[in-house]
Amino acid sequence: MDDKLIITAVFFIFIIMSGYWLSRSGKPLNVLILTVHKLISMAAFIYLIIIMFQMHQIAPLNPTEMAVGALSVLLFVILIATGGMLSTRKLFPMVVHKIHKIAPYLAILCTTATIYLLQVR
Asked: Model pTM?
């Protein structure tokens, strides 16, 4: 298995574990857990962008790779936005909670597909 897939899997394991831990800590959110969760998430997001940029430098991405990569980036942005909303003391509609619970699995799927497509090119 490629190092990039392993690193990505480790990122997602820690993101999900810290997110689960954070959701169980109750309100107000534990600042340390929240900070760790945000930093790991941002590191995974930046790692994805770096991988895509490096692969694009080697050879231009084809439309499928660009589309799946763009969807991964969009899902990360949605997760960052909904996570930011949920980390405040304000109440948000239940749909924000649902999106933040479903989107991580879609992000895992899309990011894994993106890295796989970039590796088999």
From this structure: 0.87
